[in-house]
What does this fold into?
Amino acid sequence: MKILIATDKPFAPIAVNGIRKVVEDAGMELFLLEKYTEKKQLLEAVADVDAMIIRSDIIDNEVFDAAKKLKIVVRAGAGYDNVDLAAATAHNVIVMNTPGQNSNAVAELVFGMLVYGVRNLFNGTSGTELKGKKLGILAYGNVGRNVARIAKGFGMDVYAYDAFTPVQAIEKDGVKAVASTEELFKMTQVVSLHIPATPETKGSINFNLMNSMPKGAVVINTARKEVMDEAGLVQMFEERPDFKYLSDIKPGNDLELNEKYPDRYFATPKKMGAQTAEANINAGIAAAEQIVDYLKNGNTTFQVNK
Ligand code: 3PG
It folds into this structure.
C-alpha cells in the first residue's frame, strides 16, 4: 500500500519521521509531496497511491479523478472545507479529519496575536490589557475550549455561544453560555472566531454584528477567512476607530487593510495556527494511524463524508 503526504505547507520534519514509522511499521510505503507550486504536481503524485494525508490542500473532483487507487484521504487537522466530500463519496473514497489534535496550538496563537493586537502591534504606543475584559468565544469546540482555558489564566471574563454544544457542557468549564451569536457580540469586547466555513457561516460575521460590540472591539479570526464579510470589515474599520481585526487567514482585501489601518489590522503571512511541532506530530501521526486502521481493519470512526 502506498501512502502520500501531500502538504503545500509542510509538517515539521520530526512529524514526518513519526508518520513514516507508523506507515512502515504497518508494512506500507510513504511518499512525500511538499511545497508543490502547481496542481499538476499533485495530480501526478496521487496517480497510484492508496491513501493521502493532507492539510489545507485543495482536494477536488479532478484530484479524485486522477487518483485511481485512492481509498482514503485524511485531513490532518480539524476543518475539511478544502475537500470536496461529494466528489470523494462519488469516487468511493473515505474522508476523515483528526479532531482536537492541533487545537492547543491554535488556541495559543489566539493569545499571541491578541497580546500583539491590544499592545498596538508593538508600535511603542500605550495599549490595553486582557485582564478583566470580556472574551466571547464563537463555537465551543476543541479550539474554543482551549481558548477558554488559557483566557482564564489571563483573568478574562469568558463567554461562549455554540449552536450544537449543550449549555451545561459550556458552563461546567466556568464559561458563561449565551443564547445567540448576536448576544455574544453585543456583550463582549474581544470575540474569537472558531466556526467552520459552511454555507451557513460564510460571510456571517458582518458589519451589524461587529458594530454591536462595546468600545475597544477586537475580533480575532483563527478559523476561516470565508466566515468574514469583507465589505463589512472595511465598513467597520471606517466607522469604528476603536476596532481591531487580527487574522490567521488573510482576507481578500489584505493589502488595502494593511495600507489603511496598519496599527489596527494584522494578518499572518501564512496560516500559522497549527504550525507547531507538537500539532504536526499529533495530527500527522493520528492521520497515519487512522489510515492504517482503516486499510487493515476497516475502522471508519473519524469519517466525515457519511
Ligand atoms: C485546521 O482546520 O485544522 C486548521 O485550520 C489548521 O490548518 P493547516 O493544517 O492548514 O495549518
